[in-house]
Amino acid sequence: MKVVLAGNPNAGKTTLFNALTRGRLPTGNWHGVTTRPAYKTVKGVTYADVPGMYSFNGYSMEEASAAEEIKSADIVVNVVDGLTLEQSLSLTRALLALNGRVVLYITKLGQLKRRGGRLDKDKLSAALGVPVATDVKQLKRLLCALPSAAPRRENIEKLSLNGAYYGGNCSLTRAERLFYNRAFAPAFFIASVLAMFFLAFFPHMPGDALKTLCEDLMTQKFGGFVRAGLPDGKFRSFVCDGLIGGAGGVLAFVPQLAVLYLILILLDESGVMSALSFVTDGIFGKAGLSGRAAFSLISGFGCTAAAILTTRGFSSRAAQRRTVAVLAYIPCGAKLPVFLTLLSPLFSDPFPAVCALYFAGITLALVISSAMGGRGEVMLSEVTPVGLPSPRAVLKKLYFHIKGFIIKVATAVLIFCAVSWLLSNYTFTLRPCAVEDSMLAALSRAALPLFVPMGIADWRLAYAMISGFAAKENIAATISMLMPGGTGLGMAAGLAAAAFVLACPACISAFSAACKEVGFKYAAKIFALQLAFAFACGYVVRFVAGIFD
Hints:
Elements: E1 2-7, H1 13-21, E2 38-42, E3 45-49, H2 61-71, E4 75-81, H3 85-98, E5 102-107, H4 109-114, E6 118-119, H5 121-128, E7 132-133, H6 136-145, E8 165-166, H7 174-179, H8 184-201, H9 206-229, H10 234-251, H11 254-269, H12 272-279, H13 281-286, H14 291-299, H15 304-309, H16 317-326, H17 335-343, H18 351-372, H19 391-425, H20 439-447, H21 459-467, H22 473-482, H23 491-503, H24 508-518, H25 520-548
Parallel strand pairs: 1-3, 1-4, 4-5, 5-7
Antiparallel strand pairs: 2-3, 6-8
């Protein structure tokens, strides 16, 4: 049996999907989080989470894919926002006309109650002629009890709530009026980002203090324990220097990443991020984007590949391409350990420098988008309620993001460190050797001339920069493994290296996502231009900083 979860954007379909299937699909308090159908089978029932839609005459690729899934469904669960129930009836009518086996699932009833509204579930079910559920247990029971053949519905166009629902006070609350203010919302967002960096990087703040603790536990205590328990030789070097030294150096940054993700999740779950998209629509429009692009750009702080996927629902192909092209300049979570690895030896307090890089990335994205020319798209959205987020939802999302980062380090980064260690300890004839005579050294020296104008004269650091094209975490891991004493870069070269990382193309996973969304030819073209621009940025920063160094 196939059950499709359908409804307006931001109604809560993905949250319900995760609850029904124990899935881990990303959720967000804005439109366009789900960009393509997702499936999971539980006890013989295949659940499908589809992108939000307003009608079957959709204007976007998202709505077209949702319509196709609904046509093949055995049962449709119409997920409806309890705050906008009346407006949702048009889609409910269309679903009933197409597939009579429809179950209504109402979300956001807590917010409805706080607004002074009310909902009589049984009365609503009788009025609409469809089963109605307000929690997951009720929904599961209804799905099991639903007749195999749908009764013929009459007068679908005359669906009425008949007093079963009252939306309450629909006027904007004081908080919503504040956060939908064009002056306050951007100022609050900037203040939130500054607070994020302060808590993460400022000396003795939670992020910095916990990072120091993790670093000591991973590389000193745990690494020392393993080293003491293994006999001297290549295997000990492989485990301690290659695996623990590389991957452990990246894992030490988990507390600071946790602070970054926590602030972004709070902005999302509270509805502030959605409000920000409204008030920045005009600003982004001048850069050839729209307020909807704000979701993609802010998502880029977490993962560029995931942010690229959020562009799938853009109604304008040109706006989608511009957004994909500039997302590489938004520093993702994986770039954070790299910035700190490069800048911490240069500054007693890296807080101002890291802040500057993040804001430089945002500015660079807007400037380049504007230079590309063209118009943005019309943003179709609704006012999202602003309020205190659910602590449980915040913690679940934080756990999901941190778990994903740790799994990535424990798999992809760990494998990369193992391969790098082998290449750095053996010749092309597979004989053990000093690192300077290794395969890795020979290959990296061939690319070194490209990095010398940045002030990078060490092949190990050149290799670290190249490794970032596989995954940005690899840069920090490689430096930790091959250069445990530090990079040895001066101020000018260190800033140039950081500028190169900021401007360079995203990782392989992001490139793959771009190929899916805008085509291989366009993605490859953007990759080549971004790579050339990254080297140019590194050269220019090295030259300018060298004047004052």
